[in-house]
Amino acid sequence: MSKPLADYVKLPQLEEYKEWFKDFADLYREDGILQVTWKTLDGPMQHSGMSHRAIGQLVRVLSLDFKNEIIIFTHIGDSWMTESDPNGWETYSELPTQRFQHQYFDDTNLIKNMIFDLDVPTIGAIPGPGFHWDSAMLSDVTICSDDTWMEVPHAHGGLVPGDGMGLMAQHYFGTKRGNYYMMTARQWTAQQMLDWGMVSEVVPKDKVMERAWEIARLWKTMPYENRTIMSNLAKRPLKKLLVDDLKLHTVSEQYGSLLRIAAGEMGDTHAGQQDEKYISQTNDWRYCHDWMQQPPTRESWAGFRTKPFEWFKEVEAGKEVNPFDPNKKVSPYRPEKKD
């Protein structure tokens, strides 16, 4: 039998690229089902310029490995991302090139790679409340725990909500409802996400990953080719949405940030736009208080700039407990072996 002039290009295999991304994701594969668990080192994912870039990079690498037949995206522990690395945004301040690359390339790739690079079925598995829920909501099917709260938080911090979350709120909730939640930063619950079409199922706490694997194994009973083609139909509405609007949204957020930098209004909690280093304190507070689930008022809007920091002082003094303490020991989920 004649041999071809050149063989297939040798691309990295799981054992190699899981080492590349070990600081940001735990990768576990069984029977063609890949579980991607977002994290930073051994704890919850700390939102940073580095993690932001790694998400889009990893998705692109995953798309090159045909052994990844179905992909589950989740977060370590019992919540979604809540923390932010206070020192993880230094390169964002480097103008013009570094910030341009972060906001023009990374912000867009984090969203579009989920839809345009991944040709296989995907499941978003949300174990609890958190922000930057992009990868979970961009999956073909999304399930969440019954205690999940989420929002598009940008406006409270003085940012234009253009990183894709506002766009998805408009898409899933409808224009008027999506606009309202995008422009007021009001939180929504798991039941609302189900009722309004953002998630596929709401399951009891601690059952999210078990259910995600059950769905993945169900899909595995279908022919590989058919379930893969099926996934393209699932992604098609989002492909059209992103082609029309994603870059406009991301560039709008970038432009708004640059205006605040030029005006000297980016910094502490009193600035026109809050610095990213304050995200952890405000997030931990808003996921254990229902302040932001209520109809927004000028008082509640102003309270977002003060109450989280007052509460955090109480936590540091031992008078309050932070259930989202990033130092709490967590480990990636592992499914029970099936015969």
Write down how many β-strands occur, each being a DSSP E stretch of 2 or more residues: 12
**CATH architecture grouping:** Alpha-Beta Complex
Helix tally?
Answer: 12
Q: What spatial order of strands do you see in the largest sheet?
A: 1-2-4-6-7-10
Shape: globular
How much helix is in the residues?
40-55%
Structural class by SSE content = alpha/beta
- Specify the CATH class: Alpha Beta
Q: Strand percentage, roughly?
A: 5-15%
**CATH third-level topology:** 2-enoyl-CoA Hydratase, Chain A, domain 1
What is the total number of structural domains? 1
Protein name: Enoyl-CoA hydratase/carnithine racemase
Organism: Vescimonas coprocola
GO biological process, one term: fatty acid beta-oxidation
GO molecular function: catalytic activity
Q: Can you walk through the features of this model?
A:
- This protein is of the alpha/beta class and 339 residues long.
- Helix content is 43%, strand content 13%.
- The chain has a single domain (14-316), classed as Alpha-Beta Complex (2-enoyl-CoA Hydratase, Chain A, domain 1), CATH 3.90.226.
- It has helices at 14-20, 49-62, 97-116, 134-137, 165-173, 175-184, 190-196, 208-220, 224-262, 279-286, 298-303, 307-316, and strands at 25-30, 33-38, 46-47, 70-75, 83-84, 122-126, 141-145, 149-150, 188-189, 201-203, 266-267, 273-274.
- The strands form 4 sheets. A 6-stranded mixed sheet has the order 1-2-4-6-7-10, with helices on both faces. The protein has a two-stranded parallel sheet with strand order 3-5.
- Helix 3 (97-116) runs antiparallel to helix 9, helix 5 (165-173) packs antiparallel against helix 6 and helix 10 crosses helix 12.
- The longest helix has 39 residues, at 224-262.
